[in-house]
């Protein structure tokens, strides 16, 4: 019974829930960034470099062939186009995360730098009246 309670306490702790939400949002954000890169950024770049689709860029180390039994053996390739694609994806995600962290840090600095309001000024008349009140209390 103690193990179940301990797990429940762990699972509902704020940090674990926040982490789960962050992972889910991060996965969705990754898909959005992949679409941005694949569908919007890379086609014009490919057009600028001669209509090349970066995902098709590769170095063939060994051509595909048919073995004596008639089975096709796939080519051995280094797919550097996919690598370029992932580097662009990573760069965009890293920049977006950097901007979010920078925004959060700026908001924290503004909260820390907010001046504390000065203590309320006391009117001289109020001070005199309080002193008179206190003197009257001592006499009575």
Automatic annotation (TrEMBL):
Q: How does it sit in the membrane?
A: Multi-pass membrane protein
Bilayer-crossing residues are 12-33, 80-101
Do the record's keywords include Cell membrane?
yes
Q: Where is the signal peptide?
A: none
Assembly and partners are described as: Homopentamer.
A Pfam short name? MscL
Job description of the protein: Channel that opens in response to stretch forces in the membrane lipid bilayer. May participate in the regulation of osmotic pressure changes within the cell.
Major localization class: membrane
**InterPro entries listed in its UniProt record:** Mechanosensitive_channel_CS, MS_channel, MSC/AndL, MscL_channel
Q: What is this protein called?
A: Large-conductance mechanosensitive channel
Similarity comment text for this entry: Belongs to the MscL family.
* Record has Protease as a keyword: no
GO molecular function (one)? mechanosensitive monoatomic ion channel activity
Where found, per UniProt?
A: Cell membrane
